[in-house]
Amino acid sequence: MSTTPAAAPTPVPDGRTVVRALVALKLRLLRNGLRRSPGRTAVYVIGGVVGLAFAAGIAFALAMLNGRFDGSGDAGVMLLGVLTLGWAALPLFLFSSDESADPTRLTMLPLRPGPLLRGSLLAALIGPGPLVSLVLVTGAALSGANGGASAAAALVGVPLAVLCLVTLARAVAAGNARMLSSRRGKDFAIFGGLLFALLVQAANVGSQSVFGRPGDHLDLSPLAPIASVLRWLPPVSAADAARTAGEGRYGLALFQLAAAAALLALLLRWWRGSLQELMVTADSSTLEVARGVQSSRGWSFLPEGRTGAVMQRHLRYAWREPRAKAAVFTSIGMTLVICVLSMVQGWSSVYLLAMTGMFLGLQMLNLFGMDGSAFWMVAATLLTPADARDELRGRAYAVLSYAVPVTLVLGPVLAAATGDWAGLPSALGLALALLGCGVALGATLSVLAPYTMPADSNPMRNAAPGQGGLVLVNQFGSLFGVALLSLPVSGYLGWALLSAGPTWPVLLAGPLYGALIAALGIRFAAGRLLERAPEILAKAVER
Predict the structure, then answer these.
(1) Dist CA 422 CA 87 (whole Å)
(2) What is the mean pLDDT of residues 346-375?
(3) Cβ atoms of 145 and 246 closer than 8 Å
(4) How far apart are CA 74 and CA 240, in angstroms?
(5) For position 519, what pLDDT does the model report?
(6) Which has the least CB within 10 A, 106, 328, 421, 443?
(7) Which of 61, 239, 208 is nearest to 145 (CA)?
(8) CA-CA distance, 366 to 377, in Å (whole number)?
């Protein structure tokens, strides 16, 4: 009786080989990314040099504060706090744009967690991000240093702080890898980006209140209460140990370094555990049972026929497709950020509502690029001018279904914040006129100047490589075009405001004018859509 020999087990590479391979892979990814085009290489090099120069300038400024202003070390502590927050948060909404941060790409390889952890850590230290952080942490340490003891503490604390920052980012990415690679993770990235923009503006306003404007006296005293807490929290404590040692408190300096080392050990343990789980545990999304096709109930309020079907499809795209959702929420977020910033700085106006009409109206841009190869099903059913008009009308109605409510809600909020209730009617009329002009121009440019969307679903990428010219035509052409199309309404409003004339007619004329321009634009674009459908299809499937 013959027996079949058992298959030989898959050989597991030794630790040094894995570490060298992962470091070489990171270098290869950087090199291949730069070799895609000379323009990409130039942008990467220039961006890296500018970023490094900017970081060096900040570090030099912090070092110059030492001995000249009370609380100079507090400024360095605050910088490290912001830097720590950035390293912890960035992986949550930039995860899909960094292939080297995704450990799920290695789950099918016979790798042990230990060598994988060491190789991933060394690979993560390669790149402009850790280098810029090293410069900033060094400047923060110098802001409070004093004497040889500070130098000795900084030699240990600065590299330790940088290791903690890099490990923190990778541990967060590995711990949330499967969530971040899912559709919900991409949705979270969108909201994370908007939150980051709001935090940047809040930091800008806060820095002006602390440091003042150029020429004002520098006052660092407001930083002291927050810095007194942050300096004992790792990894900030590792760099602040230079200041503590310079003051002769060697025991506390050692405690700060030990706290950072303990945090590094905990982060490495968390990272290793996440890698272990990813390597041996199946993705739960692959084990789910199909739940059937979602019912179309709840959409009965939509128009009948093709217009309603197109409207429903476009709204589903806007909610489910990460790039479409990113475009919608970015437009709303930009408007909110500018409005909040204007209120804080004291230059707000109810007429900022016009930005809502412009930004949301331009959601009509590149309508068919989002369809991708699925546009062939749309093109195959475009048989008559009525079909083309219904197709464009349904997409326009979908945009208006969320653009108009946002405008109507934001208007009273701005009026209440500014106290200019008298200007609210004309502001609403202008915003709705701009919204109609944006719909008309967006539909026209979608037909005349479509561009290719990338094959992946990264919400941070809105165009495939080589489409930069068409993107600029759409974006800048649409902004100038909307401004020109809305001149009859905006021109009258400007005259009325300057000459103290009546502004209430804008509330009536604005929506009517916007609806007329939108209807004319859709009719014009529909005629061209029948002629250019094959060309648009070729552009939509190009990758």
Answers:
(1) 46
(2) 82
(3) yes
(4) 9
(5) 94
(6) 421
(7) 239
(8) 17
